[in-house]
Amino acid sequence: MDMPGDQSVAAKAAWPLIWPRKLNQIPKEVFVSPGLFEAELKTIFHGDIWHPVAHAAELPNPGDFKTFSLGRTPLLITRGADGKINVLVNSCTHRGTQVEMCAAGNRKEFECPYHRWAFEISGELIGCPGMSEFSPDFDKSRYGLARLRSAEFLGVVFATMGDNTPALAQWLGEDMIRAMKVILGDGRLKLLGYQKVRYQVNWKAYNDNDGYHAGLLHTAFRLLNWQGGKGAQFMTENGHMSIMAELQPLRNVGFLKDPSLITFKGQDPAKRASVLELFPIGVMVKHLDTINIRFAIAHSHDCTEVHYAYFAHQDDDEEMLRHRTRQASNLLGPCGMISMEDASIFQRIHIGSFSPGVAEFQKGVKDPYALPVDVAQNDETGQLPKWEYYRRLMNFQRAEI
Ligand code: FES
Ligand SMILES: [Fe+2]
């Protein structure tokens, strides 16, 4: 991806904002500015970046579909009769009406309600009422639903609206490919279900998920002995990061009548937990036996919608399926025992950010003028390379002093 240097940024800056000189300070204005969000739509959500939009296990059969959004662009993701997944724009090629309203389902074809143009599951236009009276140059084959470039890895479907997005493997990089394998295994998954929520927060605050807060904000997270576990963080220059940790669930838990909720039944002897954050807001998590992909939509500067999708492995037996379902629905997500406080903090970050000044990162900072090299599991410095990538992408110039 083209990354212009600081010298050229003044003329090109997407939004008039001077960035602090220290790398561990983030101007709070970036969390609350509606105008900045419009610039982010162009540069990030519709730019040369891959966005996870689905997992193949959400669409196991021909005719299956789900609706989603990339920024404000509505998507219709389908599995065609040929078994291939299509990432289409959910906008009729006639007058632009949203074609499909349901969150998910199975159809033989899509019919736009306005003038009843009909589309194949794979997006081609089948026919239109009154077509013999259309303009003489009307060519049906040119009116299929618009299609985004897409690519798949371990069943995760990525899409991009950019013209110069690099190959998916290059964009992910080796560390993130490894992290995806830890979380998803061979990628042959089975969908267990969803929790869906809208947070009143900017997408950048939603995704500022650091290893520092886990055992401090989330009281029940202490059941997993996060702070006592071993682990490390890995970051890439293009804004991705992963935390790999060893969880050691406590044995005698006073308030938890049934400790089987936090047992580990999988094959990984390290009982590892892995959190993967792909720039800008793609998140995958494995805690104990919970496998979770968080498909997020940045609706506006103050609204981020997250679809927490939970999965099992296709080869799981009935007992493992029950265990994963129970653990997923009780432990993680917006109402999960170990993470429910996030929603409240997101809203309070949003309220607090309507004030001058900067958000500070301190835990793990050795040099405020340089990016971190070694980051411990419970440091917050793992977020800083992502912020630096964001700053450069948006062409914000650093203050001189
Ligand atoms: S807008 Fe879809 S058929 Fe007219
Ligand atoms: Fe959290």
Written description of the protein model:
The protein is α+β, with helices and mostly antiparallel strands and 401 residues long. It has 9 helices and 21 strands. A 7-stranded antiparallel β-sheet has the order 13-19-18-17-16-15-14, with helices on both faces. Strands 6-5-4-7 form a 4-stranded antiparallel β-sheet, with no helix packed on it. A 3-stranded antiparallel β-sheet has the order 3-12-11, with no helix packed on it. The N terminus is likely disordered. The site of FE2/S2 (inorganic) cluster (FES) has 8 residues, from loops.
Layout of SSEs?
Blueprint: H1 9-12, E1 18-19, E2 25-27, H2 34-45, E3 51-55, E4 64-70, E5 73-79, E6 85-89, E7 104-106, E8 110-111, E9 118-119, E10 125-127, E11 149-153, E12 156-160, H3 168-172, H4 174-184, E13 189-199, H5 203-206, H6 214-217, E14 231-235, E15 241-246, E16 272-278, E17 282-287, E18 290-300, E19 303-313, H7 318-331, H8 341-352, E20 358-360, H9 384-393, E21 397-398
Parallel strand pairs: 1-21
Antiparallel strand pairs: 2-20, 3-12, 4-5, 4-7, 5-6, 8-9, 9-10, 11-12, 13-19, 14-15, 15-16, 16-17, 17-18, 18-19
The structure holds FE2/S2 (inorganic) cluster and fe (ii) ion (FE2).
Residues 92, 94-95, 97, 112, 114-115, 117 line the site of FE2/S2 (inorganic) cluster.
Bound molecules: FE2/S2 (inorganic) cluster, fe (ii) ion
Low-pLDDT parts are 1-11
What is the number of domains?
Answer: 2
CATH superfamily of the largest domain: Naphthalene 1,2-dioxygenase Alpha Subunit, Chain A, domain 1
Largest sheet entry: 7 strands, antiparallel
Mean pLDDT over all positions: 92
Please tell me what the overall shape is: globular
Q: How does CATH name the architecture of the largest domain? A: Alpha-Beta Complex
What is the CATH level 1 assignment of the largest domain? Alpha Beta
Radius of gyration: 22 Å
The tally of helices reads 9
